[in-house]
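Need a sequence for this fold. Nothing fancy.
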């Protein structure tokens, strides 16, 4: 068989013919059939090679392909932010892990069939599945190869190609050649697979444990409190959540003991994730991203492929106003981006607007948890601009220039991650929000020092985390079409959210 690139002597599974569907569940089932068959073919052939049965040529298999075609601009429902084609033509995408994305794919395909009254066609694509991505359990492919092999792995199997993994579609930079297929989804299958593997590497938890609502923090105090609260909820029989998953895929189910493997060598990964699992992914994932905008961009680049319903930043900040007190809250409604990690993907001149649904949920959560309303609530929470900077020790330079910029922007708080997380939410069309807690006031002589910081963390973390969880519960109660509003969509978008 000759593969997509025209190379002879190819070992591939027989081609599965295209078929059109008017039922989303049936379409996803066919994509699953193709994916399972093709990835198993690669795994089996690799196992045979390791056992000494070398391939006679190249071993190849391709991702499933889904496409829709229409010859009109019309659609049945114009109120939705997604679920419709941007114009006439053929719109398609490659897909991976239909088991993991089953609910997402069914929802997106159902909307296309409903809004355009056309079938969805499923078949095999020409995008090659890299051998590494045929394994989704963290298998180290190169480590399994016999040391005596005379030829490198890539002589037999396809390996990940960074040319297939860029963000041109989601960045709005992808150009469709005349007569070619328009993108149907924001990410290709290879781009998604890459992020699924990176998530497992960075967080030490499998992709299937991630929930649709994500909290980011950069302090272990929040993790400790989240773990305490999760175990308490499960032990108390709370039916809102089914299980709690910790790094190493250690699973504690409601009313049961923990199962799973420990984190390798007892060490935590770079950005450990903790998952309070709800029905159909409706729970909460908390990720300790560490410090700095680079980490914030890295993790959100990968979480985005899971298409979460919202992500929020809960962290600490420097209060820039003398009227603020340690422990006060800052609800960001704008950002000064001096993080310098997203400039190539989203220029700093692009405004990152506040999202009303998220802002209201956060403000209501603060009021409910603190018991304060109206004017009294203003005493402990300010809404305003947050500046994010990539230099943690900015105070050690001549600080007159940054202070002038903070003043001109009306910034009321300074941190290192919030603008990055919000900007990547905007870029990836993931609803975002930020609620920070003032932990120091460097412009007013209150620096973050060890003793003061420890007392502050012990006193404030539990309340702050409770507010974040309460806000997520409010977002979870919203209809998805309200949460995923048109505010995050451009004028030429993919049909898949």
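Here you go.
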């Amino acid at each position: 068989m000759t593969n997509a690139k025209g190379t002879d002597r190819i070992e591939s599974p027989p081609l599965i013919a295209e078929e059109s569907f008017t039922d989303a569940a049936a379409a996803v089932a066919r994509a699953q059939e193709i994916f399972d068959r093709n990835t198993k073919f690669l795994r089996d052939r690799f196992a045979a090679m390791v056992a000494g049965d070398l391939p006679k040529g190249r071993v190849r298999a391709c991702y499933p392909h889904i496409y829709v075609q229409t010859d009109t601009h019309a659609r049945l429902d114009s109120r939705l932010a997604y679920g419709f084609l941007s114009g006439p033509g053929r719109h398609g995408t490659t897909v991976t892990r239909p088991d993991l994305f089953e609910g997402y794919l069914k929802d997106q395909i159902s909307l296309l069939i409903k809004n355009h009254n056309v079938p969805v066609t499923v078949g095999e694509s020409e995008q090659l599945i890299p051998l590494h991505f045929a394994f989704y359990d963290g298998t180290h492919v190169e480590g399994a190869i016999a040391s005596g092999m005379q030829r490198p792995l890539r002589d037999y199997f396809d390996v990940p190609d960074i040319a297939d993994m860029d963000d041109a579609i989601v960045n709005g930079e992808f150009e469709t050649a005349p007569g070619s297929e328009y993108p149907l989804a924001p990410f290709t299958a290879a781009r998604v697979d890459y992020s699924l593997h990176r998530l497992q590497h960075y967080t030490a938890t499998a992709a299937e444990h991630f929930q649709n609502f994500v909290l980011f923090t950069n302090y272990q105090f929040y993790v400790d409190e989240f773990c305490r609260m999760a175990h308490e909820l499960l032990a108390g029989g709370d039916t809102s959540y089914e299980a709690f998953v910790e790094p190493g895929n250690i699973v504690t189910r409601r009313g049961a003991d923990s199962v799973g493997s420990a984190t390798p060598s007892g060490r935590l990964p770079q950005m450990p994730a903790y998952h309070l699992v709800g029905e159909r992914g409706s729970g909460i994932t908390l990720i300790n991203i560490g410090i700095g905008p680079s980490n914030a961009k890295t993790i959100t680049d990968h979480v985005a492929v899971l298409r979460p319903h919202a992500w929020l930043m809960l962290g600490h900040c420097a209060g820039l106003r003398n009227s603020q007190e340690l422990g006060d809250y800052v609800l960001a409604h704008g950002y000064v981006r001096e993080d310098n990690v997203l400039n190539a993907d989203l220029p700093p001149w692009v405004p990152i607007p506040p999202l009303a649904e998220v802002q209201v949920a956060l403000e209501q959560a603060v009021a409910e948890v603190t018991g304060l309303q109206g004017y009294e609530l203003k005493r402990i929470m300010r809404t305003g601009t947050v500046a994010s900077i990539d230099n943690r020790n900015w105070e050690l330079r001549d600080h007159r220039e940054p202070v002038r910029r903070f003043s001109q922007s009306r910034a009321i708080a300074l941190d290192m991650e919030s603008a990055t997380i919000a900007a990547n939410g905007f870029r990836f069309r993931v609803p975002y929000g930020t609620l920070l807690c003032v932990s120091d006031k460097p412009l007013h002589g209150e620096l973050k020092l060890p003793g003061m910081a420890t007392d502050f963390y012990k006193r404030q973390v539990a309340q702050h985390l409770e507010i974040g969880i309460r806000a997520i519960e409010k977002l979870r109660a919203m209809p998805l079409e309200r949460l995923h509003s048109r505010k995050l969509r451009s004028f030429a978008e993919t049909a898949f959210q």
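For context: The domain at 10-197 is CATH 3.30.1730.10 (amp nucleosidase, domain 1).
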